[in-house]
Amino acid sequence: MKRLLSLGLTSAMLLSLWGCTSAAPSADQTEVVVFAAASLESALTQIAECYQTEHKNVKFTFTFDSSGTLKTQIEQGAVCDLFLSAAQKQMNQLDAKDTTGENTKGLDFVYSETRIDLLENQVVLAVPPENPGKINSFTDLATSDYLMCIGNEDVPVGAYSLEILEYLGYSLNQLEEQGRITYATNVSEVARQVQEGVVDAGMVYATDASTYGLTVVDAATPDMCQQVIYPAAVMKCGQEESYETAQDFLTYLHTDPEAISVWKDVGFTLVQ
Predict the structure, then answer these.
(1) Calpha distance 234→224 (Å, rounded)
(2) Which residues contact 65 (CB under 8 A, 6 or more apart)?
(3) What is the separation, in whole angstroms, between the first and last Cα of the chain?
(4) Span 65-106, pLDDT tens digits
(5) Are the C-beta atoms of 58 and 89 separated by less than 8 Å?
(6) Where are the domains of the chain?
(7) Which fold has domain 2-120+227-270?
(8) Buried b (16+ CB within 10 A) or exposed e, 39-59
């Protein structure tokens, strides 16, 4: 509970930084609890505040983290009205209508009729502004003396990063033995480590590179890793009184011109 309160306060502070002016709380507010991938934090909080200017009775409570962590919290009983994942896998694992075989536990948390593919992103190789490791492409990872950060295996950006390393023929064990690789719990942590110069490079999403002011030196091609798609859906573990509002906000996210503009400004591509 303390963690949720802390994250809620952080989100509230972030919302105050943007141009839209949110309405004061009212007695008949509808709360919408949103679990979203860490890479969505900047854009989604901005869009939410703009939504609130037209829906003064709506209060958002956000939790931003890796999609794997959020999926686990949902599975363990957390209240979530709307889930936005950075990969299909975590949504599939919660969806009773999954056809990929990834829902191995028979979980039924997703209102499948509300599920959409919302956004597309791209995995890039990013370095601090002065590029101390002199890394200019993925191929430089074979010879350069560097320290690189990627997400953990259960984090979508980490899974994509491992696909890229495998495609390029790099041995993860060898990179670990040489002390060239370190791990983070979500993509924002990877980006912060690059930004602060703790590491020489990191694999992040293009949108995070933009948000954190990182220098992008290479981008993954479609044959290097699977397409980076963000699915979104209203969840059965949400509050009954919040269902319609959560569904309306999900529609707003991919149809409202202002929302679409925010996504594009950050670097996302709309799928729907």
Answers:
(1) 31
(2) 35, 37, 38, 185, 186
(3) 35
(4) 999 999 999 999 999 999 999 999 999 999 999 999 999 999
(5) no
(6) 2-120+227-270, 123-219
(7) D-Maltodextrin-Binding Protein; domain 2 (3.40.190)
(8) bbbbbbbbbbbbbbeebeebb
Gap between the Cα atoms of 174 and 49, Å rounded: 46
Q: What is the pLDDT of residue 3?
A: 39
Same fold, 2-120+227-270 and 123-219: yes
- Cα of 32 vs its chain's centroid, Å: 18
Amino acid at 185: T
Residue reference for tokens 């003396």: 145
Q: Which amino acid is at 111?
A: Y
Q: How far apart are CA 218 and CA 207, in angstroms?
A: 14
| Res. 26 pLDDT band, cuts 50 70 90 | low
Whether 34 contacts 74, CB under 8 Å: no
Q: Give Cα 73 to chain centroid, integer Å.
A: 15
Q: Could you please state the CATH topology (level 3) that the domain comprising 123-219 is classified under.
A: D-Maltodextrin-Binding Protein; domain 2 (3.40.190)
3-state secondary structure the chain: CHHHHHHHHHHHHHHCCCCCCCCCCCCCCEEEEEEEEHHHHHHHHHHHHHHHHHCCCEEEEEEEECHHHHHHHHHCCCCCCEEECCCHHHHHCCCCCCCCCCCCCCCCCECHHHCEEEEEECEEEEECCCCCCCCCCHHHHHCCCCCEEEECCCCHHHHHHHHHHHHHCCCHHHHHHCCCEEEECCHHHHHHHHHCCCCCEEEEEHHHHHHCCCEEEEECCCCCCCCEEEEEEEECCCCHHHHHHHHHHHHHHHHCHHHHHHHHHHCCEECC
- The model carries a pTM of 0.82
Query: Which residues does 162 contact at the CB level (< 8 Å), separation at least 6?
Result: 150, 153, 172
